[in-house]
Amino acid sequence: MTTRADTQAAEEAANEAPPAGDSTPSGDSAPSGDSAPSGDSAPAGAGDIKLGGAHLGDKVFKIGTGAFGALVLALPFVMIVMLYAASRPAIAKFGFGFLTGTSWDPVREDFGALPFIWGTVVSSLIALLLAVPVSLGVAIFLSELCPLKLRRPLGFLVELLAAIPSVVYGFWGIFVMVPWLRETVEPALVKWFGFLPLFRGQPLGFGMLAAGLVLAIMIVPTIASISREVLRAVPDTQREAAQGLGATPWDTIRVAVLPSARSGIVGAIILGLNRALGETMAVTMVIGNRPKISTSLLDPAYTMASVIANEFTEADKDIYVSALSQIGLLLFAVALIMNLVARWLVASVRRRTVGGKAT
Predict the structure, then answer these.
(1) Domain limits at 99?
(2) Roughly how many angstroms between the first and final C-alpha of the chain, as a whole number?
(3) Which long-range contacts (CB under 8 A, 24 or more apart) does 142-149 make?
């Protein structure tokens, strides 16, 4: 029979016993030296080849990706060098007068780029004036107002416009848009606004207005698609906060959505402008291709991309080829400047927005 003293002795012995985690394994239960992990044991993947303290695969991947990045950075510089080398005869002969000259006479070897610069800039600005309101309206509708069932199909149709080849736009412009402009739009412009220099002349259909219109149609999907994604990236909490204060849908878009998306929208517009500056085929087919400067939007004109596409295969003299190469160098410089301006605008707008100054 167990006595009270025996019970107390058993409890004291249990309290004095060390916990199970602190127990020292016996010699029989201790793991052998072969199976016990040691500080020198190699981690997983120790069999991989090492080179200079790093895995060979990491070295190869780093070098390869670095080479690709360097190639992308070097390609524009190589293009500039090659274009400059090809343009040196024209630069040496015409100098700064090439930028201000208005004559383009391959027979007399007299070349000036101002008509092409004028046509490129004016047609691109016309395209922006026509495309930006439409693009922003499409982007706002698809991101804020469109029913969910229609949002995806309509967005797909807008993006599909960007996939249409430019030559298709050109053919459509020749057979549909140009006759419509010649028979309907331009006669009305001459009748009602003929007193303005912008709308004087004969309604030919082919001209600066046609080029600006076809460019506007081509850059709408670019601006609209990017602007839609920028608007959808605005946090819903900003919309909910505005609606909680009693804002209407238009007030919500104007106060809570557009200020936050301003920098992205500016970037989308500049990307559309770059697309318009470099467009060749569609513009060549509808602008009329006449190297003259005219204030009338109804008169034919010429762009830098169009003259290169039209006349490069016909250039039979070195100075002729050099003049076309210099125009290509100018077009490259214009695109580069516009990209730098775009980055500056986006950065400045973002700083004002983050600083709380955007309204």
Answers:
(1) 79-354
(2) 92
(3) 142/224, 142/228, 143/228, 143/231, 143/232, 144/231, 144/249, 144/252, 144/253, 144/257, 145/249
DSSP 270: H
Q: Residue 138 falls within a domain, yes or no? A: yes
Q: Could you tell me the CATH number of the domain that includes residue 167?
A: 1.10.3720.10
Evaluate whether residue 66 is within a structural domain.
no
- At residue 130, the pLDDT reads 95
Please name the amino acid found at residue 332: F
Sign of CA dihedral 24, 30, 35, 40: positive
151-178 burial: b if 16+ Cβ within 10 Å, else e: beeebeebeebeeeebeebbebbbeebb
| 124: in domain | yes
Spell out, as residue ranges, where the chain has pLDDT lower than 70. 1-54, 349-350, 352-359
Over residues 36-58, the pLDDT tens digits come to 444 445 455 445 555 555 588 88
